[in-house]
Every structure is written in structure tokens, then in C-alpha cells.
Inverse folding.
């Protein structure tokens, strides 16, 4: 069975965005030639799940090929129906049902790149198998929290931790099944 991995960055105080969906704090750890393991990680997946706001941000900042490279399926979770573009599907159905279906299919692993609503919906349904969380050395104080209240308790097992010279700390956990 395929696994669903969350690969995401957060501030030390747990925010994935400042108010108004501002991701500028991520620039604090940008360093030429350093991708924090993203390139290696991306080769393990062939399917991506992403929220519409995160998708729109990346589309505007980087371009559509960052996600849809013609080789992987992209599911943009949205409330507004839109026709598919290339391998990108704008999905308006039940997220848990989609993930369960994708996990049962053959292929590489599945990558969730946010946003917070998507992550927390997946946590409520106990569908995230692996967490790779990069902690940016900043306290933001306000914005969009990565983890929200109202989800079940879940046990994790540390796979690896890595410190980078930019001050970023990356934690890699997998679900510990009871």
C-alpha cells in the first residue's frame, strides 16, 4: 500500500504562513544549492495533493511545472469545480475517500504539500503516514497554524533529524501504529 507523506516547512511556533498567506519567512533559509532533501523526496512520489491556496501561490511564484511535470498526478483540493489541466485535477469531492482510493492503487507514494485545512482534514481521518517537517528559525506569532485543535491523538516515531547551517531543523517522523 502506498503511503501519504507530509513534507512542509513551519516556523518554530508552528505557523506555515504569516497573516494574509504570506510565506516570505521561508526566504530566511534559502541557500543556493540547498533543497533540504526535497529533490530526493520528490523521486519517491508520483501523486501530489495540495490545497488550492497553496497551489495558487506556487503557480504565481514558481510556475505550474513545479507540481505538474507531466509525470505525476496532481490533485488540487478546492470548492470550485474547474476542468483538469494536463495531469492536474481540481478535486471537489471527499478528501478522505480520494486518499483511501489513491493509497489502494499501484504506484509510488503520495505527497501532501498543504495547506493547513488539507493537513488537518487528513489528520482527522488518520491518513498521514509520514511527516517531514522543516522548522524555520523564526517565531512569527500569528498566521496559519500547521496543526489545529480537534483532531485525534496520534503517536509518532522519530526516523531522523537533521540540522542545517541555515538554522533550519528537519524532523522526519512516521506514524506509530498501536
Amino acid at each position: 500500500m502506498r503511503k501519504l507523506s507530509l513534507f512542509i516547512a513551519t516556523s518554530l511556533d508552528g505557523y506555515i504562513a504569516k497573516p494574509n498567506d504570506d510565506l516570505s519567512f521561508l526566504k530566511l533559509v534559502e541557500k543556493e544549492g540547498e533543497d533540504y532533501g526535497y529533490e530526493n523526496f520528490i523521486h519517491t512520489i508520483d501523486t501530489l495533493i495540495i490545497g488550492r491556496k497553496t497551489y495558487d501561490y506556487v503557480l504565481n511564484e514558481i510556475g505550474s511545472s513545479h507540481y505538474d511535470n507531466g509525470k505525476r498526478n496532481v490533485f488540487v483540493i478546492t470548492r470550485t469545480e474547474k476542468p483538469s489541466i494536463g495531469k492536474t485535477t481540481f478535486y471537489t469531492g471527499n478528501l478522505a475517500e480520494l486518499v483511501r482510493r489513491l493509497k489502494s492503487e499501484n504506484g509510488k507514494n503520495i505527497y501532501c504539500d498543504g495547506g493547513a485545512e488539507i493537513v488537518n482534514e487528513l489528520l482527522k481521518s488518520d491518513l498521514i503516514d509520514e511527516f517531514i517537517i522543516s522548522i524555520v528559525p523564526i517565531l512569527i506569532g500569528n498566521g496559519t497554524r500547521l496543526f489545529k485543535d480537534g483532531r485525534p491523538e496520534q503517536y509518532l516515531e522519530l526516523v531522523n533529524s537533521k540540522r542545517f547551517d541555515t538554522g533550519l531543523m528537519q524532523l522526519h517522523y512516521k506514524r506509530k501504529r498501536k
Q: What stands out?
A: The mean pLDDT is 93. The CA atoms of residues 18 and 143 lie 4 Å apart.
